[in-house]
Amino acid sequence: MLRNIQELYKYRALIFALVTRHVRSRYRGSVLGFIWSFLNPLCLIAVYTLVFRNYIRFETEASYPLFLLTGLLPWIWFNSGIIESTASISSGGNLITKAMFPPQILPTVSALTNLVNYLFALPVLLAFLLWNGKIPGLAIIFLPLLISIQLIFVLGLSYLFSALNVFYRDVQHVLGNLFSLLFFLTPVIYPLSTVPEKHRKLMLFLNPLSYLMEMYRGVVLDNRFPQALPLLWISFVAAFVFLIGNIVFNRNRESFAEFV
Length: 260
What we know:
By secondary structure, the protein is an all-alpha fold. It is 73% helix and 0% strand.
């Protein structure tokens, strides 16, 4: 794991350049350009609000579009970051076959590119807050910490799945369907209070994203500081996943060039 971290630091300028290129190329040729980083979540919010506000109603303290946006933005980063990272090594081509190129750069760039898109969308969240008469309180200082925990979690899963996908290309297809299920098992479009009490604790224990969603909404919407034990739990899970992802990645990295 230390080797990966040292190489990422050593090649930080290259990582920055690749992330910048990926962000620019994502919207190259489109008329609206970077504005799509704002419009994409807004379009999703419009669809989900239409369905879950008018047909399947959920009671939320904040307005439903604001409630939805607070959970949807980190979910989009999580989902897109891991899906893109999973295929990054297997589609790396000539870069992976170069002896001096650290392969962990590719999934790292995918994860960071989607983090940048998340950060670009935060002004939209702020505008929604102000529109609804809410001003971020002191608890918002925990937002960078939550983002950091999610980044470690996303990187760990990215290293794990990108390594496995080199040898088993089914992984990227399985993940797409698995994440569709996980989306509905995570309180993104509905409040956690709608989950029956007997299933709620199990859901929080097995799905650390549930804790993250609740903490995001707590610090952004309710000016509520994260509780110590849940915060320690998701930090431990993120660190453990990061460790496992690095171990699996390092054990297989020498074989990547033979299979891509």
